[in-house]
């Protein structure tokens, strides 16, 4: 469980995170989404005690990170897979890391096995591909078998195999009841991996929603065509839907989904030639949400809200 | 979730062992150890060549031969070697970004600083004393009963100076850890180190008397002469600092740089 409360982080005059509040619950993958520079990485660094918040708090299982006695046992994080000393072997990298938290050699061997690096454990990291480095980073995050996991842009630069591996790993970690926070600036990736979304822009919360609700919010009705559209419109109207007649003779129906419309039509013996749900894609929804935040932030009166 | 098999956790000790593992698994430590061996070999070769010169001279001119104590010739290169190691303790991690993994694993940054200081200091202690004592022993053995200027009097008289020289290697290593932690850049820290150990002490000669000796006497690179009560110190620094005062100043160099590191590393965002 991660709790971010009224978190603000300023670097000089730049506000990276601005009064951000959200929770990340266990048992599901929470996507942390926002354009580059939205404050995702800053929030993660504050969560890990690497940066000090200007105000507010970021708690992990109710504790500030700095107060965790063996942090790796509570929280695993992959911030930047490139942040390893290339001259060290994968095994030696994990060894020193494990040792800081009193984690034994057997666990090191088992995470290397788990991420598929056991065969190259004694090779220098310098020779690793980006995908292998990501795997090493994941191994480091899993060392303490933590209940909370943070991954910052883990699929960036990975080949399709690597992307799929990360995606399945995230889902299985969440299925084991862990709290998984996964940042990305790509909605398409989130649509495949995340159950819940926390969307931020310019350091502020834009949406804290399930993937399903986000899709529903941007649902724009069902386009229905029927040779007897007048009768169908009456039936749907009586059934509680809102019907708009379009110039081309089609109907735009809101308040009922395609299957409900089909059932209602069948019960009344009315033929339907087309029933197409029309909605913004998640990608469009995301673009609209984040562009709104940018416009709002740039507009008059955007400042001074406390 | 399966429980993680763990050893008993003692944060300070585990961090120390972890830093030891880190140091042992980089090539830097082997470069430094190899560098120390090369320094000893080079100074030994120099002693051998001076002996050859001595042998080639007629009897009456042999007393003109003078070689600076070889252990003192080896000292500055040894200091620079462990200095680079000390600097790298932090700068190598800031350079790669690995420092974030370190601080995420050990949120108490003071513990990390202490562990790195202790590990680097121990390595420097071994390299410093082994380098100095081996150079000393080999050079005296090679010189034999020829008088080369550095081997007058009983060898035991050299002990205070040898102990002070080895100590200065440790001091330089600790100061370097602090410089690396504060500056975060390997280049910047090494440049400052060379400035501190070599350029500044050389430049004091341009100061008007009596400030040349006064400033020179407090230079990090000159303190060991005064701790070890070397004749050189008596001549050049006029005995300005007593051995205890010079020792205290060594400790101050360490305290100031590591103190600055503790403050900065503890507060800084990474």
TrEMBL record, chain A:
Indicate the segments forming the ABC transporter domain, all copies: 2-227
InterPro entries, A to Z: AAA+_ATPase, ABC_transporter-like_ATP-bd, ABC_transporter-like_CS, P-loop_NTPase
| Gene3D superfamilies reported in the protein's UniProt record | P-loop containing nucleotide triphosphate hydrolases
**Pfam families from the UniProt entry:** ABC_tran (PF00005)
Q: A Gene Ontology MF term for this entry? A: ATP binding
Give yes or no: UniProt keyword Membrane: no
Q: Which UniProt keywords apply?
A: ATP-binding, Nucleotide-binding, Transport
Domain of life assignment: Bacteria
Q: Does the keyword Protein biosynthesis apply?
A: no
Instruction: Name the protein family.
Output: Belongs to the ABC transporter superfamily.
Output this protein's name: ATP-binding cassette domain-containing protein
> From which organism does this entry originate?
Halostreptopolyspora alba
User: Mind giving the lineage of the organism this protein is from?
Assistant: Bacteria, Bacillati, Actinomycetota, Actinomycetes, Streptosporangiales
UniProtKB/TrEMBL annotation, chain B:
Q: What is this protein called?
A: ABC transporter permease
Q: Spell out where the chain crosses the membrane.
A: 28-54, 74-96, 117-142, 162-183, 190-209, 245-265
Pfam family of the protein (one) = ABC2_membrane_4
- Source domain of life is Bacteria
Q: Which UniProt keywords apply?
A: Membrane, Transmembrane, Transmembrane helix
Q: Which organism is it from?
A: Halostreptopolyspora alba
Keyword Membrane in the entry? The reply is: yes
